[in-house]
Amino acid sequence: MNKSKLPQVHTLKRGKKYSYYFEGIPVDGKRTRITGSGFSSEADAFAEGELKRNQYYGISDESSSEDDTLMSFQDFVKKEWLPKRKKLKKWSLETTRYYNKLFDNHIFPQIGEYPVSSLTTEILQDMIDSIYYFENRSLNTVSHIHSLMLNVMEYATNHKYNNRFFKNEFAVPKADFDIENLSPHRTSIPSDALDRIFARFPEGSPAFLIMAICLFTGARVGEAAALAIEDCDFDNNTITIQRQFPDNMYGYTKLPKYNSIRTVPMCSTLKGLLLNAVEERNKNQNKKKMKNSYLHTYFTKVPHSIEFKNTQSLHSMSYEKGDFELHFLCVNQRGKPNTPHVMKHASRIIHGFKCDHKHKNVENPLYAEFKTHCLRHTFATFLHTQSIDPISISAVLGHKRTAIEGASKTTTTYIHISDEKMKEIEKVIDNIYKFKDGVLKNAIPKDGE
Known about the structure:
The protein has 449 residues and is α+β, with helices and mostly antiparallel strands. The protein has 14 helices and 12 strands.
């Protein structure tokens, strides 16, 4: 944009301080106003306003571009990049929702109103540093945002929307460790914390069986919640993990992550818990008052469509009709499946928040660093401490690739655990975790013992 066409900077006096504002470019068809405040004089406010305006519109003293076609970064993403990227990469509904969440929650609030042509590497680096250091988001989330922005800005550069971004100068922040504890963040849960968690959520509570399955099999939370009686071979002490409840898609199941259908050992402790769940399910189903209202869960294969493309083996859930019935293990008294959403309530309590969402004050947390995925890490950690080989651990966990260096996805599909190894892992798990009356009791040696 030529300097003569830039909007005027205005100043206002608010109490004893001055502020500036100028018109920004439309976002979603709505007018925007860029403001700044807290200046001691009108001249300071005006000078800063001019500086911010020129930076906003990508104008420098050497700039002589006559291009008057401006688009906000938010409009650029929603109208230009996102539709083309979805079509090119054949994103599933889950992937689309996840990227929209990153944009709406983290990226657009900081740079959505900027013209895409004015975004510099410095602006984007400040944004991603702010997300990590000030919003305290995980390094994993920040890495995803970094990859996403690299892709967006590469497209913007190649299609002449921006010529001020240099990817070699755009970096992921370094991992930040507490200066008093320079060891990396611990992902396995200490034994005393497990004691407290399972004492608070004993057998019979909605979150108990999901957490127990994750702890004894290394299953992901969506896989644990979707485990059915049909998946359990109680004669041979094995479990087949072959479906999951996908995130943000209530009422559906699909294949596990990376299509990692796998058979895992069922130790005697978990077998007892699962048989108790089957017995409790049958008891509730046969109660006179529940006989006609007990929910039976049916599934129907969802054909590939524009909305659900690239989502393998998607099935819709119904309580009245369908192609086949599944008997879930994690259910309430009416037979309704306990989906991974029950873990949100449990996680709040474990982190020390009150049950009432209106009261967010923290009391004494059971384990402040808890994440449901930590149960999976705990399982893997203790298999490793008991000298189970990395290839077997990878196979049980359903990793995309095995622990073999450089192994391809094809190689992974040919690796299976022998019956002997399955029995060995089963015994190891039984020696680590012990439940008594539905409560974990000093199962794992304390650190240093």
